[in-house]
């Protein structure tokens, strides 16, 4: 069997022209219009492929974007409770009872503060261990390694376990937040009760003086608890978002380990580096006119020709989609399976089915890279000019 050359062609996302949209989002809708090849235009000469790894600046940019979020650093120490002297009145006894309640509540807040500081130390340690493992994997991938390197697979599993520990830290934070919320409710009740004590009869001036001091200390404790709860909630929100993004990054990293080359962070979790276009940086990628429909022309971001087995397209695909999302983070993508209209109807049907399977493989690769599938629309068409099965990707 003759060996047929494969071309993966891409143009920069900035160059594409606004074009037609598909009339339906159903799976594998049929598209009408001209063929994806530029009619009457000679094919560009084949270019020799050269591997261009991410630059040091790009790697540093990715590391900075994936750094663990900042945790709060406030140490929430309750204020001291001013001791009082018995006055012998009913109101004086009430003030003494309220003072005891405040002391018990402050002791509880002190324990919650110690628990918070401990969780923060554990979370910081777990994050450092996780990022140390990820940095080791990325360094190995940057210089190149064998596909599916078992050492990197083992390190990836370790990173996944370390990320699970951070997830456990978040669970502890949530439990602590519930306890602090209970203390907040109690402090509000104590403040209302203290203020209501001013209306009790039978008090002397000393009772009201001690009551005013107690009210001020309860008020400061209420503010302290609110600050603790707010800072704890911010920590929980940041850590939850961070863990979610890192899970997507681990999925993308597993694909990089499978291929034995560094690709970058998940497409779902970060803005991507700016600079020269991905299409211009990879000689395997070239400009090409896209299909015509509804009277408007669109140029594909990526054209992948499946004219032989095991087409290497993932790194070029990642770079191109990466670049498109960097320029317009809200972009969606149309993924079109193109089959050649050659031979008998049965042969065309077989080619169409193969083209659809190729498109599904590309869609799966995009998912592994972290691109949300709700941003991708799938469709299919038959071309009179196509020589082999192709997959086109358009930015919308």
Could you explain how this protein is built, in words?
Residues 1-65 and 270-296 have low confidence and may be disordered. The protein has two domains: 8-54 and 272-395, 2-Layer Sandwich (60s Ribosomal Protein L30, Chain: A), CATH 3.30.1330; 67-259, no CATH class. The longest helix is centred in the middle third of the chain and has 55 residues, at 205-259. Strand 5 (333-340), helix 7 and strand 6 (376-383) form a beta-alpha-beta unit. Helix 2 runs antiparallel to helix 3, helix 2 (90-143) runs parallel beside helix 4 (205-259) and helix 3 (150-196) runs antiparallel to helix 4. The protein contains seven helices and seven strands; from the N terminus they run E-H-H-H-H-H-E-E-E-H-E-H-E-E. The protein is elongated. It has helices at 56-65, 90-143, 150-196, 205-259, 278-281, 314-327, 345-368, and strands spanning 8-10, 292-293, 296-297, 302-306, 333-340, 376-383, 389-395. Helices cover 53% and strands 9% of the residues. The strands form two sheets. The protein has a five-stranded mixed beta sheet, with helices on one face. It has a two-stranded antiparallel sheet with strand order 2-3.
Which features does this protein show?
single chain; 60s Ribosomal Protein L30, Chain: A; five-stranded mixed beta sheet; two-stranded antiparallel sheet; 7 strands
Describe the secondary structure blueprint for this structure.
Layout: E1 8-10, H1 56-65, H2 90-143, H3 150-196, H4 205-259, H5 278-281, E2 292-293, E3 296-297, E4 302-306, H6 314-327, E5 333-340, H7 345-368, E6 376-383, E7 389-395
Parallel strand pairs: 5-6
Antiparallel strand pairs: 1-4, 2-3, 4-7, 5-7
Helix pairs in contact: 2-3, 2-4, 3-4
């Amino acid at each position: 069997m003759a060996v047929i050359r494969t071309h993966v062609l891409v143009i920069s996302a900035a160059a594409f022209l606004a074009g037609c949209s598909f009339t339906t989002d159903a799976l594998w809708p049929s598209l009408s219009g001209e063929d994806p090849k530029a009619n009457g235009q000679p094919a560009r000469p084949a270019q020799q492929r050269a591997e261009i790894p991410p630059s040091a600046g790009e790697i540093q940019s990715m590391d900075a974007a994936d750094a663990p979020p900042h945790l709060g650093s406030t140490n929430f120490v309750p204020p001291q409770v001013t001791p009082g002297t018995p006055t012998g009145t009913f109101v004086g006894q009430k003030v003494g009872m309220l003072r005891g309640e405040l002391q018990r509540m402050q002791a509880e807040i002190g324990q919650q503060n110690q628990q918070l500081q401990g969780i923060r130390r554990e979370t910081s340690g777990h994050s450092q261990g996780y990022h140390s493992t990820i940095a080791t994997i990325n360094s190995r991938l940057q210089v190149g390694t064998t596909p599916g390197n078992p050492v990197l697979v083992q390190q990836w599993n370790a990173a996944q376990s370390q990320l699970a520990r951070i997830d456990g830290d978040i669970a502890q934070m949530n439990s602590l937040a519930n306890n602090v919320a209970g203390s907040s409710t109690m402090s509000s009740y104590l403040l209302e009760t203290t203020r209501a004590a001013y209306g009790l009869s039978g008090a002397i001036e000393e009772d009201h003086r001690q009551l005013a001091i107690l009210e001020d200390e309860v008020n400061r404790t209420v503010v302290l608890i609110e600050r603790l709860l707010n800072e704890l909630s911010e920590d929980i929100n940041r850590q939850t978002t961070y863990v979610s993004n890192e899970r997507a990054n681990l999925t993308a990293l597993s694909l990089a380990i499978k291929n034995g080359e560094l690709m970058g962070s998940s497409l779902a979790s970060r803005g991507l580096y700016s600079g020269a276009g991905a299409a211009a940086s990879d000689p395997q990628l070239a400009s090409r006119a896209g299909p015509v429909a509804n009277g408007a022309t669109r140029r594909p971001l990526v054209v992948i020709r499946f004219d032989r087995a095991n087409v290497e397209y993932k790194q070029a695909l990642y770079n191109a989609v990466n670049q498109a999302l960097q320029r317009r983070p809200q972009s969606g993508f149309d993924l079109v399976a193109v089959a050649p209209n050659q031979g008998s109807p049965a042969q065309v049907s077989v080619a169409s089915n193969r083209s659809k399977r190729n498109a599904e493989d590309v869609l799966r690769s995009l998912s592994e890279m972290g691109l949300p599938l709700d941003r991708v629309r799938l469709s299919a068409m038959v071309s009179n000019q196509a020589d082999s099965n192709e997959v086109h990707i358009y930015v919308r």
